[in-house]
Specification:
With 152 residues, this protein is an all-alpha fold. 86% of the residues lie in helices and 0% in strands. The chain is built from four helices and no strands. Helix 1 runs parallel beside helix 3, helix 1 packs antiparallel against helix 4 and helix 3 runs antiparallel to helix 4. The protein is rod-shaped and about 115 Å long.
Amino acid sequence: MSLLSSILLTALGGILTVLGVYIGARYQAKEAAHARRETERREDRFRLHAERREAYVAFYRAVGGCRRAFALMTQPDWDRSSAGEARSNLWASWIVLRLIGKERVLESAGNFLSYVDGMLDGSTEFSNGEWRDLVNDYVENARDDLLMGNTL
């Protein structure tokens, strides 16, 4: 009897060992998958943050191009085609903002587009003060999103 009980206990120990290894491996695989997903999410957030930063900078540069083009509106030799091109560049950079930008930044950028459109169709005259206010609003909203928007 002692031989039979010894064999049974050994077999039970082996079965429990295999079962423990199986449960441990599954738990380890689940934890590894969770860590991998978390790393991917973090990388995606970082990539989106970097893309937002680039989009915000591109729009700001386009704003600068518009500023140069529209500041000369009062001059007799004002080139309307360069203003149209500057507006097209502004629109192209706004499209990227529309895809990845935050709502407040989009609102500020939309205000710029409306202002520039108004200058192009003649319903708005260029004003340094108003332009500066639009720039400050855009920069403030972009900075808030990038620094305090919890995007990372």
